Amino acid sequence: MNKIAITGKGGVGKTSIAAVLSILFSKEKKVIAVDADPDSNLAASIGFPEPGKIVPISEMKDLISERTEYKNGFFKMNPKVEDIPEKFCPEFNNIRLINMGVMKKGGSGCFCPENALVKTLVGHLLLQRDEVLIMDMPAGIENLSRGTAASVDAILIIVEPDIKSIETARRIQILCKDLKIKKVFAIGNKVTNTDDENYIIENLKDVEILGFICYDNFFRNFKGIISENNISIINQIEKIKLKLGGIQ
Ligand SMILES: Nc1ncnc2c1ncn2[C@@H]1O[C@H](COP(=O)(O)OP(=O)(O)OP(=O)(O)O)[C@@H](O)[C@H]1O
Ligand SMILES: [Mg+2]
Has this prediction a pTM greater than 0.85? Predict the structure, then answer.
């Protein structure tokens, strides 16, 4: 289980959990952390130095035109991407960060050079690289595209003990069923007691819940630093990581 997409409603904790999982996996293996949220903050949450200076792939204009352009004015749909992670994406403590940037949506925008490069790169990372890959998805379900979702080994849906995040989780689960993705799991985040855990269990019966993470003020605005203050939350996420490792 080494290519994992993290999804769920806005604000449930996707980025924080993606950051901790990336850090925990990076102690054993090389990790590719993919920030697929245009409102990107995965780099900061992992603790990358100067995260604001990381240029998203979709904004690398020279690279995009160099890789996608044909002389006759049309552009290549399958540009060369193999060297992009090492040449253009920063690495920090065994974690390579790929910031996708903003994908153009709808109509002819789907067939623009930026999207072609980003999509080809995601496909390459998912299918041809053997690092652990953790993908922090944008909130909601629209962005769980057929290509991405079908190529990951597992989808982790983060939920809170609140009905809205559970409804989003159910919609994601239905979408995954349609896409025939079998490994779909939930994580209950920001729980404060066993009532919260039971609420999630009762309302999300068809999804295997991998674990629960407590609400903890010391985990707010996590920026990659593990300390005695937040170690209990980190240990809860470590348990989830071990379960992921055990799933074939
Ligand atoms: N277990 C927790 N205890 C306390 N605060 C938490 C916990 N998990 C996440 N948070 C806080 O909740 C807020 C939202 O978390 P995060 O940014 O990780 O969510 P997200 O799902 O990625 O949000 P978005 O949809 O905006 O990308 C942050 O302030 C974060 O620090
Ligand atoms: Mg986020």
Answer: yes
